[in-house]
Task: inverse folding
């Protein structure tokens, strides 16, 4: 889940891993590349290493707890709606991109200024 590394540059960075990235690392949910980048950062950042250590300790406490964890019905309902909401948001982003990419007549719009100038020159040369 590289999206968790919004503040993490390709080069070594003084920025810290987000809490979401730390949780994903502890839960083995990062892609191989993202995990590698996180581990490189941890070599150089004591603060993030401490956060990972605390997150791992918390995860172990929860896993080792014999009492079943119960969630309220409303929480389960909200959690169940997350994939639907994410899918709807993705559909909306695609529709917005299509609206920006295609003109009302269905023709593809030029993406860059150079493309627009080239299109205008081609139309003028056809006249």
Result:
């Amino acid at each position: 889940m590289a999206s968790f590394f919004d503040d993490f540059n390709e080069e070594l960075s003084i920025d810290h891993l987000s809490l979401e990235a730390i949780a994903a690392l502890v839960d083995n949910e990062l892609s191989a590349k993202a995990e590698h980048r996180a581990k490189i950062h941890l070599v150089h950042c004591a603060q993030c290493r401490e956060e990972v250590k605390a997150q791992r300790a918390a995860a172990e406490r929860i896993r080792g707890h014999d009492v079943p964890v119960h969630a309220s019905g409303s929480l389960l309902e909200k959690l169940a709606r997350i994939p639907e909401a994410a899918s709807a948001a993705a559909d909306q982003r695609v529709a917005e991109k299509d609206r920006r990419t295609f003109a009302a007549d269905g023709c593809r719009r030029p993406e860059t200024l150079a493309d627009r100038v080239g299109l205008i020159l081609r139309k003028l040369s056809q006249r």
Observations:
- The mean pLDDT is 80.
